[in-house]
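Subject: Interface between my chains keeps coming out wrong

I've been trying for a while to get a sensible model of this assembly. When I model each chain on its own everything looks fine, but I need the whole thing in one frame so I can look at the contacts. Pasting all components below, labels as-is. Any help appreciated, I'm running out of ideas.
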Amino acid sequence: MSERILISNARLVDPASGRDEAGAIGIDGERIAIVAAGVNDPRLRDFDATRTIDGRGAVLIPGLVDLAARLGEPGHEHAGLLESELAAAVAGGVTSLVCPPDTDPVLDEPGLVEMLKFRARNLNLARLYPLGALTRGLAGEALTEMAELSEAGCIGFGQADVAIRDTLVLHRALQYAATFGYSVWLRPNDAWLGNGVAAKGPLATRLGLSGVPVLAETIALATIFELVRDTGASVHLSRLSSAAGVDLVRRAKAEGLPVTCDVSIHQLHLIDVDIGYFDASMRLVPPLRQQRDRDAIRAGLADGTIDALVSDHTPIAEDAKHLPFAEADPGATGLELLLGAALKWGASAKLDLVRTLAAVTSRPATLLAARSPRAIESAAGLREGALADLCLFDPEEAWTVGPETLRSRSHHTPFARHEMPGRVRCTLVAGAVAYRAAG
Amino acid sequence: MFVRRNPQLNRNDELIHLLSIEGLPASILTHILDTAGTFLSVNERDVKKVPLLRGKSVFNLFFENSTRTRTTFEIAAKRLSADVINLDIARSSTAKGESLLDTIANLSAMHADMFVVRHSESGAPYLIAQHCAPHVHVVNAGDGRHSHPTQGLLDMYTIRHYKKDFRNLVVAIVGDIVHSRVARSDIHALTTLGAPEIRAVGPKTLVPGDLKEMGVRVCHDMAEGITGADVIIMLRLQNERMSGGMLPSAGEYFKTFGLSPEKLALAKPDAIVMHPGPINRGVEIDSAVVDGAQSVILPQVTFGIAVRMAVMSIIAGNSA
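Reply #2:
Try treating it as a single job with all components included. I did that and got this:
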């Protein structure tokens, strides 16, 4: 007999429908059976719950959808394990995530993708949607077997952080992907200009760090847009970093190009000055840029130019940051910080919860569903009949980021010791409790 | 965001490490220069030793080779009566896979009192200063493109020796400024000590316009850059700049930005010419200028010992 869970007395916030009201949700097995406003819905009396979760003081939302999270496996088990990182996901309220193909070995073989999906499914934590490699070994030379990889479960194809140097190869990759309607995920970064370890600017100049100019992003975007115009391929742009980049995307969207984009929690909240005295936790890809770039990114996320906020979760081995800045591994843990980062941004931008949380729920979910029919179920929101992927969090409770509060195997983050708003009480995936906070 | 303390200073704002000139007040810079002045006479005595660092162990940690800089630190430490241990790490532990911090932990366990660090990555001495035992002092002997503070200080000593006062000077720094830790240290020191006009001179590939952010006037024309200058600091040109596509050839560089006697005539008649060494004669500077009356390149080397003695003795006297 399947479980019947009642989450009562919660504030229901559903960015997909705009709902924001007190109510309760009844879950029958994997799906939402009742969405009740207030407490007087007669169906609640007859629901006959096997388990009741008191949602008093908490907000119930659809589970978060994270479009960029690395999980350590395969190949980087010393930094993160599938189990630890998917546990971190649900602890952060994330119920669906997209992982890039830059594992070791690279996700360019259907067998590897099937194995990864199989192992993730057996853990019964967050849902995993892998991206396949666009080129074999991410080498930017030969195309992968996209149709095979798609059958194995890849929801799109990308190059992670490895830019394709040869424009002819990129052109053909987009033509080929467009043939089958596969979406291509690219981080706009010119292979030649984009090699520095910090953003070009006064800070990199002062510290003597090699700088990545904004040009690295805008030239890559201009190339991608021309190729999209020519091929009709649908492209998702990962992790914008600059004001000029946001502006180019805004114009491309106005033109009607089939492009979407995301930005990471780091670019949303931090700038290059935060590097301070060579703080290696701020060694990130893309690099942190200046105040005006952060302002444009915040505005772009609010006005919808930027479709989604991502954690850019990258497990980093404990000692891999104890190195000179340029030699430190780039990246940071983030799955458990996505909700807090969104709430922090929403509060400072004076957005209501519906609009704030759309950036981590309905907007990425819709994007995923539109491009990847397999993911359509995660996009339904708080609706009767929808899969019960839910997150219950306490908006008033703040917590301090640190090794003792993080589930991820990796604890390196620029937000270490920061206070984060919004503590996740409980996360459900397909009606099953995947995470419940202690106490 | 958190307010980060300058890691070079203790709670009383005394110097405990020398990592960069940036962020140090003029009073500390002046104190170092004044102290160096007193050591200069020690270096001219028959017995060139003072007992200030007697019983202390100074470890020269050179993760990047530099015989010249290492030697000047070694001489300075020995004249302060310290025991000096030279570790050529470029060829030993890290080559065997030991991490930087493991190396530091091991040397700390040998009761080191001071690390003099040269590293190819910007910021490496900060990492070491953060992770070494609290009684250990760190001197940056050059990190990546970031900083070479003792060179900056010896350059200031040289300028003050010949020009007395910084407050009316036009200083031209010529060459590969974007890759130069010496230029960065000189610029910070000159700004802090009140030099009113600092010019960064070179082609746009080596002197990009955004260097303005450091408070310098950017000149892409050699004649404009050195006209009326009181001090000309020539930088060494690395061969990599040609293979990296930043310059076509050494010959063309000498023609456009090399310092010849004719170009030097555009500067003030009493202008001094400096160079951190080693010199590429005929690439960035003409032999006639190196050996000419206005060159103070060898005095720089002499002052360098005194300045390094001053730095080591001052930081050794301050505790974390």
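Reply #3:
Confirming on my end. The CA atoms of residues 198 and 209 of chain A lie 6 Å apart.
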